[in-house]
Amino acid sequence: MIFKLVGDGRPYPEHGLSHREWAQIPPRQVRLDTLITTKAVLDLHSLLAKDSTFYGDLFPHVVQWRGEFYLEDGLHRALRSALHQRSVLHARVLDLPSEG
């Protein structure tokens, strides 16, 4: 098993962070088997591209909400880590408070 669950969509509320705001969050290690994906489909061109992170953040974006870790951006990076037999990756983690 690579991920905890393959999801399709974001169950958490909209956080509204811009790319610049994400860049302010320091990366930390996250275990791949704790992540729930928010995309069920992966583009193989993105996975196999040598420059796939050239135009985006080097670190995946993860939202921690209600005790779960949702992989919001960086699915191809996470899968590439798994293919290299790594169990963790460095990601920017936003701790989103539960409402209520």
How would you summarize the topology of this molecule?
Blueprint: E1 5-6, H1 19-23, E2 27-31, E3 35-37, H2 44-48, E4 61-65, E5 68-73, H3 75-83, E6 88-95
Parallel strand pairs: 1-3, 3-5, 4-6
Antiparallel strand pairs: 2-6, 4-5
Number of strands: 6
Largest sheet: 6 strands, mixed
Can you tell me the CATH architecture? Answer: Alpha-Beta Complex
Can you give the mean pLDDT? 88
Strand residues, percent:
25-35%
Helix/strand-derived class?
alpha/beta
CATH level 3 topology: Conserved hypothetical protein from pyrococcus furiosus pfu- 392566-001, ParB domain
The structural domain count equals 1
Q: What percent of residues adopt helix (DSSP H or I)?
A: 10-25%
What is the spatial order of strands in the main beta sheet? 1-3-5-4-6-2
Radius of gyration: 13 Å
CATH classification, class level = Alpha Beta
CATH superfamily: Conserved hypothetical protein from pyrococcus furiosus pfu- 392566-001, ParB domain
Can you characterise this structure?
- 19% of the residues lie in helices and 29% in strands.
- By secondary structure, it is α/β, with parallel strands linked by helices.
- It has one domain (5-9, 20-95): Alpha-Beta Complex (Conserved hypothetical protein from pyrococcus furiosus pfu- 392566-001, ParB domain).
- The protein has a 6-stranded mixed beta sheet with strand order 1-3-5-4-6-2.
- β4 and β5 (68-73) form a beta hairpin.
